[in-house]
Amino acid sequence: MKIKVSLAAIPAIALAIGAFAAPASAASNTATVNVAVTAAVQATIGVGYSSGSNIACNVGASITGMVSCTTTATVSGTFRSTKNDTGGTSVSLTGATITGTGGGTIAPSAFQMTCTGGTTGSPSFGGTPGTLATNAPLSASAVNCQSWTGLIISAYSLNLALALDSAQVAADTYPVTGFTATATAN
Fold first, then answer.
1. Are 75 and 45 in contact (CB under 8 A)?
2. Residue 102 CA: distances (Å) to CA of 56, 63, 109, 131, 172
3. How many CB atoms lie within 10 A of CB 54?
4. Which helix (H) or strand (E) holds 45?
5. What SS3 state is found at 63?
6. Taking the domains of the chain in order of start, what are their residue ranges?
């Protein structure tokens, strides 16, 4: 059997063989793709007072027992916890020793905190609320007013009321002192 190849077919065959034998090369170009990710701040906190600029605690003539302070503070803000939140989300208050001009002192533990409120609006992720503080003694360490576990992306508003143990208050002139309110999201 004889194979006949026409002269017209030779260039097409050579081109096909050349394409299989040629080194692989391709054109390429790169560009930078800019990505901006926005995730709200983990926790923000604001403090608004329902009356005046200070929580007023006047023990008056009382020498024993808890005396309720006459004004409260509203602590509010927003949270965004991490997806795998294991540390919890909370709003806490840290007390400080108050020293009077005559040297008298009031320890943070002389104060008790009671909180009401919680998350506000219709949050997509409201977390699981823990117990609100009720007559919780303050300390120089953070004491939770409210805490949550699980995912939380929400606004909150807490009403913070204090009471003072009059037995721990020596007669003196005490300056206005700030306690620290902290919002934490993990």
1. yes
2. 20, 18, 20, 39, 6
3. 13
4. strand 43-49
5. coil
6. 43-184
Residue 26 in tokens = 């391709």
User: How distant is the alpha carbon of residue 148 from its chain centre?
Assistant: 11
How many C-alpha atoms does 10 have within 13 Å on its Cβ side?
Answer: 5
SS (H, E, C) 153-183: EEEEEEEEEEEEEHHHCCCCCCCCCCCEEEE
Strands (E), 81-110: 89-94, 98-99, 105-106
User: CA–CA separation, 160 vs 166, rounded Å?
Assistant: 19
pLDDT > 90? residue 1 = no
Query: What gap in Å lies between CA 87 and CA 11, rounded to an integer?
Result: 74
CA distance 181 to 183: 7
Rounded CA gap, 136 and 176, in Å?
21
CA pair distance 142, 19, nearest whole angstrom: 74
Question: Residue written as tokens 């391709």?
Answer: 26
Tokens 């020596």 belong to: 170
pTM: 0.75
Q: Kindly indicate the confidence band of residue 164, based on its pLDDT and cuts at 50, 70 and 90.
A: very high
